[in-house]
Amino acid sequence: MLRFELGRILYHIEIGTHTFMNMENVGARPIRKVQRKSSTGELHQIWDAISYWTSDSMRQQPTQERIHSFLKARYGITEVESVNAMLMRCLDDQLLLRETKQGTRGKLLGKMVEIHTIPTSLQKSDGWDWYCAICHDVGIVTGCVSCHRVYHNDCLPDQYKSDNLKCPTCTEIEDELSSKNHNLENLNKCIGFVCERVKLFVPENLLLRKVPVGLFQKSVSYQDFEVEPYREVLIFYEQMSVGKMARKAQNREYKTLAEFVADANTLFHNVQVFHHGNNQFPAPTLKPMQRTLMHDADELKNCLQCFLYSNEQPENWYCLPCDPPHTLVYAKQKGYCYWPAKVIKKNEEGRKVKYDVRFFGPPYERALIEEAFIKPITTPVSSLSLKRTAKLNSALDELENHMNQLNMSKSTVPVAPKNSVVDNATASPPKKRLKTAKQQEKVPKPAAPKKEVAVAVPVVEQLAEEPAVVDAKEEEEKTEPELPVEADMPPELDANRNSVTSSDSRKVVMEESSEDAVSSSNATNGEVSNANAECLEQLRQKHAVEVAKMQQAHAEEIKKLKEEHRLQAEVMKEQHRVAIEETKAKIWCCQCFGEAILYCCWQTAYCSKECQHRHWMSDHKLKCRRSR
């Protein structure tokens, strides 16, 4: 007991230099302080000792001597001063309680002894974490003025070192709140996809501890142990898990992406604090999880909509435009030709500039391409010397679809004002007139003499060249005046009248001849269509007869094959039965399991004298039933 008190006094003298720094201003919230003195490795060792002595199998009081014997046997801690210092640090952190009780068993029966117990909860908290958020260790830390995170002064970057510390996490959250306005529904939906993906390869409990088994034994083996609930309560300031992050995303509690990254870092911080100093720490499990979460967070920073489309995968999801849209380029990877792609991010590493691109066409691969192998999308395809393949054609089709959707999203549909000059009644005739002209152009030309056709074509052209819009007043002005009667016509215009009537008669004759030609061509077309229909019907009947014959032949062939298969199966069954009977009738060697020819005693036979000698020398001479 005297040695224990002496160790306590020396310990307080050792840490007395830190006591003044714990409180800069009395009655005010401290900025720099020693949050905890005991590491989690020491805590686990002390708690393991107390749990061992108070278990149902031992039922002993955890005194200092028994705790020391446990640590010496399981963890190899032999020095009493080291054990005393560990106990002092745990007591100062209020992670152990010391009580004086009367002994109940053994040599301590009836004596007053000091025992150590584990508290089930913390008495109070000052609003800050106990471990550095970067190195996850104890010591003199500086607390953030906006959150619960603390940092060592050596762990912080230079730009964050100040009396009123605002940590990098809070700074990033505030910058993102002020600069970006994400769609909260899409953001939380993407975070839910990330959590579901991480759950596929992360174990349910990241806090399983591997501890040595076999107390007071020379051989040491490790075994997984479930974590008691009090350990999480006493070690973690904020408990976090993948399921909790998924529930927050489902309830749309994340306002920015930086909040999700902060929760992920809290999860990694808790796991590393819990296993700090343990060589059996499950690092191979945590590192892939951390890598996946950080990679997906970077992808969400690059483009939220691309990540959402790639997980939901609607129809033609890669052709859907993002807001803001990506830069489109032709990128060339080594061993491939130029390929259409979207620029996801531009990486500048010193003088080298590389583009992080994602190519069109399945499987939508990513690559880092140097600036020399990037060409703008306006480059003519003919100058790229592309080798047209099915995959390249598919990628170019997707590029065209994407550009069309971009143009549709950028263009606005014009809406005419109420007092618009455009009238439906005046705007519709041009469409009808043009339509009739096109229909007349598509009419098949009649088989008429060349002269008549040469005269008829300009009529269609003249009709198509007439003005489309005609005002009602202009129609009244352009109406043909009434011709004078023949008796009123002067004699000098009589010749002109005769010429006009002759030209009119010629036009009528040509129009009648063209109509006759059209009717004759229609008649011939009708006869041809009837003949084609009769021929098609004959071919259909012939095809139906041939199909019926092939189906009948196929059914007969199947029936024949089934019968042959049945006969072969019966023959094989008979051969198999005979082979089984012959095998049962044989006797096998007890040494090499070959066919036996030499018999010794009951159910004992050999294939040769060598096997008999070996079997006899092994153990058969003691078990042989043959009468001697």
Summed up, what is this model?
Its main location: nucleus. By secondary structure, this protein is α+β, with helices and mostly antiparallel strands.
Protein model, in words:
It is a single chain. The chain has about 625 residues and is α+β, with helices and mostly antiparallel strands. Helices cover about 50% and strands about 10% of the residues. The strands form five sheets. A five-stranded antiparallel β-sheet has the order 11-10-9-8-12. Helix 1 crosses helix 5, helix 10 runs antiparallel to helix 11 (about 285-300) and helix 11 (about 285-300) packs across helix 12. The protein is flat.
Show the helix and strand layout.
Elements: H1 2-14, H2 16-19, E1 32-34, H3 40-53, H4 64-74, H5 80-92, E2 97-102, E3 112-117, E4 140-143, E5 150-152, H6 168-179, H7 184-199, E6 209-213, E7 221-225, H8 229-235, H9 242-250, H10 257-274, H11 283-302, H12 304-312, E8 327-332, E9 338-349, E10 352-359, E11 366-370, E12 374-376, H13 390-410, H14 424-442, H15 450-465, H16 472-477, H17 494-585, E13 598-601, E14 604-606, H18 609-623
Antiparallel strand pairs: 1-4, 2-3, 4-5, 6-7, 8-9, 8-12, 9-10, 10-11, 13-14
Helix pairs in contact: 1-5, 3-4, 6-10, 7-9, 7-11, 7-12, 10-11, 11-12, 14-15, 15-17
Biased composition (Acidic residues): 477-491
Biased composition (Basic and acidic residues): 438-449
Protein name: Zinc finger MYND domain-containing protein 11
